[in-house]
């Protein structure tokens, strides 16, 4: 097949018709496009490099054979990508680096809170990544040059590695923004009279004062004991909701409650 057949034009075609034919086929076969064909794209580019240039075309027509003629230009270092760029003037930018590689990283609540080191195997190479305390679901981390190599040109830089973070839910610690919610059950009389309690926090056991006169359902806020803020040396708050427990009461206990009720009603009169 000669260069005219490759581009689908007659030997009498004008330079503008040749250019138009090349533009159409180059777009169709360009390897960066979905369904592209690298082999056909190269043949189309080679054909245009010859008959798209008036002087080369004249010599080609005189030779009468595309194969014999093109051999004269084997050392011309024709850059097929450059030809495409010149034709389309940057309207469609060629791929300048390898493709990005995307990975999903699942970590436990405690790993995310405390930070961790993680290893990824990329293209047969181990990549070590350190994550600071305070990871959250939805965070993205981009490691430049750690992605896929360029599929056609090894001299171009690799793409990036993009890591998507997913933090597993911990039923004991509910994350809301940078605050951590917990719950603690107490007898109603301890809540109202006030006491000191120990609760489980991500840092371990933590002592909390329940003030006298606290109402059931009240939330106690403990500053700087919540979730770390990524990249900063600060934390949210620990929010502890105090739930009332109502134990079974005997007759004697009920009598005391009735006395309390009578005193309260008397004070309200």
How would you sum up this structure in a few lines?
33% of the residues lie in helices and 26% in strands. It is an alpha+beta fold and 269 residues long.
What does it look like?
With 269 residues, the protein is an alpha+beta fold. The protein folds into 3 domains: 3-88, DnaJ domain (Helix Hairpins); 101-167, HSP40/DNAj peptide-binding domain; 174-249, HSP40/DNAj peptide-binding domain, CATH 2.60.260.20. The chain is 33% helix and 26% strand. It is built from 9 helices and 11 strands. The strands form 4 sheets. It has a 4-stranded mixed β-sheet with strand order 6-7-11-10. Strands 1-5-4 form a 3-stranded mixed β-sheet. A hairpin with a 2-residue loop joins strand 2 and strand 3 (125-131). Helix 2 packs antiparallel against helix 3. The longest helix is centred in the last third of the chain and has 18 residues, at 251-268. The protein starts with a helix and ends with a helix. The model is unreliable at 65-76 (pLDDT under 50).
């Amino acid at each position: 097949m000669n260069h005219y057949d490759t581009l689908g034009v007659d030997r009498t075609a004008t330079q503008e018709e040749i250019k138009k034919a090349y533009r159409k086929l180059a777009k169709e076969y360009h390897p960066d496009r979905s369904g592209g064909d690298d082999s056909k794209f190269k043949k189309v580019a080679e054909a245009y490099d010859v008959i798209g240039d008036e002087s080369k075309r004249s010599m080609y027509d005189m030779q009468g054979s595309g194969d014999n003629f093109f051999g004269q230009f084997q050392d011309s270092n024709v850059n097929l990508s450059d030809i495409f760029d010149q034709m389309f003037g940057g309207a469609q930018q060629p791929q300048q680096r390898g493709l990005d590689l995307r990975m999903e990283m699942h970590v436990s609540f405690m790993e995310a809170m405390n930070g961790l080191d993680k290893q990824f195997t990329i293209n047969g190479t181990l990549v070590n990544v350190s994550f600071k305390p305070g990871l959250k679901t939805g965070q993205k981390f981009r490691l430049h040059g750690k992605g896929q190599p360029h599929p056609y040109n090894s001299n171009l830089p690799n793409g990036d590695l993009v890591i998507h973070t997913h933090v597993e839910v911990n039923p004991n610690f509910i994350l809301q923004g940078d605050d951590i919610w917990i719950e603690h059950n107490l007898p109603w009389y301890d809540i109202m009279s006030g006491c000191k309690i120990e609760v489980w926090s991500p840092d371990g056991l933590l002592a909390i004062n329940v003030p006298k006169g606290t109402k059931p359902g009240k939330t106690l806020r403990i500053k700087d004991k919540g979730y770390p803020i990524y990249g900063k040396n600060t934390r949210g708050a620990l929010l502890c909701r105090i739930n009332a427990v109502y134990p079974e009461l005997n007759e004697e206990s009920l009598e005391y409650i009735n006395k309390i009720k009578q005193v309260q009603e008397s004070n309200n009169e």
